[in-house]
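User: what does the whole thing look like in 3D?
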Amino acid sequence: MAYIEEYAYEIIDNMDDARICTQLLAEEFSQHERLTSFYKIPAQSLFDALLPRIKDLLGQRLSFLAQHRPSGEIVGAVIADDLYEKHKNYSPDSPPATYPSRDLVNELTNQFIHNDFDQELKPHLVAYILLGATRAQHTGKDVGSRLRAMVCNQARIQGFQYVLVQVSSPATRHIYTKKLGGKELSVIDPTTWIWKKKGDGSCPFKECHGDPIPNILIRLTSDSNE
Ligand SMILES: CC(C)(COP(=O)(O)OP(=O)(O)OC[C@H]1O[C@@H](n2cnc3c(N)ncnc32)[C@H](O)[C@@H]1OP(=O)(O)O)[C@@H](O)C(=O)NCCC(=O)NCCS
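Assistant: Here's the predicted 3D structure for the full assembly of 226 residues, as structure tokens:
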């Protein structure tokens, strides 16, 4: 583990760090995340939409940052919430989101709650990873894996039994399934996904090729290898 000493990891627990992490996530998603870059969502729009949500989540103490020790720069972040809290205000009748990826992900979350998960959703049962990114110059150095392992560990410490995530990247799919023991459940293929909330039959990711996007569930309790 050659990179362990190079990076420090900590909970995002203050506004200054939250702002820097939001900037990082907005820029990396806008440039490198599959659906966001395909739809050409500007980093500034993402930043404006994400900052209030990330500020609201500080009290949950489930989100982590990675700092590059030699430079002091924050180079990675993963944001998580209690799925119950995230989902409790969701309404299937709400208007379409500004960007379709949000509605696609909400549809997958609904499939998880109503089809994949055989329990009633309660507070402090399922932690939900909203998004995460590593600065492009620091990828491939275990930062993303360690951040996600820390979120899972912190969720376990807080009493959560599961972590749910949806992934659009082969690297995160590998991390969650091969390194953290997650199981794939329902999937949505963006290339055939119809933006139902928009109501015009549009298929905004028709040309956005790549793997289908799965719900991945990680069981945190000791019988996780059943
Ligand atoms: C995806 C991302 C988070 C990965 O972060 P990272 O810090 O490079 O992750 P790590 O170095 O810990 O691990 C990457 C792992 O994925 C593997 N990997 C990389 N590319 C892969 C691919 N195309 N297919 C399968 N596995 C792949 C690596 O081999 C490594 O696994 P290993 O440790 O077993 O060798 C980062 O590239 C990123 O932020 N991308 C832009 C935003 C984004 O797409 N976020 C995720 C949305 S779901």
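In plain terms: The radius of gyration is 17 Å. The chain has a mean pLDDT of 95.
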